[in-house]
Amino acid sequence: MKRQILALVAAGAVLFAACGDDSTESGDTAAPETTAGGTETTAASTGGDAKACAEGKTLEAGSLTIATGDPAFPPYVIDDAPESGQGFEAALALAVAKELGFEGDTVKWVRTSFDTAVAGSDTNFDFNLQQFTINADRQKVVSFSDPYYTANQAVLGYTDGPAKDVKSLADLKSLKLGAAAGTTSLQYVLDVIQPEAEPFAFNSNADAKTALDNGQIDAIITDLPTALFISAVEIEGTTVFGQFALGEEGGDQWGLLFTLDNPLVECTNIALANLTASGELEQITNQWMGDYVEAPLLPES
């Protein structure tokens, strides 16, 4: 029986719209190597000249245009100022840009929504990063870089609320759950958790917080770093009760997003491989994400 998802639609950016389907294909022919930082790189790309590769391939000659959310949230971007390089994705973007030969005024920032970017509707950037999960459906309309981060899913609720006794995925079935529309989180709720109550799909973090406050939902399902940030900063009195892996890959693989078949993808993969080999990607990841990856792993039952 097909589920009818209860949707709460409101204006605002999607803090936890980081994820997509649980199919993660990067389209590379060489086997990826997993690094200590939880990322992967294609061995054949390591040691290449990303700057030379990028010449003549950017949207505007002599500059690189990077897109992020409007607004962009911590821990990915601090104070909604990606140009500062503060935050995981802001720092990563500038490190990739430097590998491609762009620094300072030659790097421009623009804003897009999450939904229009993954739909392939936006073309005003060289690459876009908003915790986009790489998946086969999206690859029909956009292209992705190799993964730069892998995130598990997590369950978040009030410390003394209905989700306080969750010890396994099976315990989630009796709860009223909410997740961001169009995400891996929501798909996981529908396909794997299959709760007894219909799940809610939210367009904004504000909607989810309001629903949690009002008892409309018992818990939020989202990616682990976002869940831990929400608990630590956004919603006082909440706890991340646990995390769970998705599929054989063990989580959502995030990639830089490009217009379909953009030739800059190859160059960016070289840049990511070089940053991985040098240890800089791991350093950036540890600096900005180190506080947002710890939570108990939930068994299935």
Overview of this protein structure:
This protein has 301 residues and is an alpha/beta fold. It has two domains: 6-13 and 153-244, Periplasmic binding protein-like II (D-Maltodextrin-Binding Protein, domain 2, 3-Layer(aba) Sandwich); 32-151 and 249-292, Periplasmic binding protein-like II (D-Maltodextrin-Binding Protein, domain 2, 3-Layer(aba) Sandwich). Helix content is 26%, strand content 21%. The chain has helices at residues 50-54, 88-100, 114-118, 184-193, 205-213, 224-234, 264-278, 280-289, and strands at residues 6-8, 32-34, 40-42, 64-68, 107-111, 127-128, 142-151, 153-158, 177-180, 200-202, 219-223, 238-244, 252-259. The strands form four sheets. A six-stranded mixed sheet has the order 1-10-9-11-8-12, with helices on both faces. Strands 5-4-6 form a three-stranded parallel sheet, covered by helices on one side. A two-stranded antiparallel sheet has the order 2-3. The longest helix has 15 residues, at 264-278. The two termini are 24 Å apart.
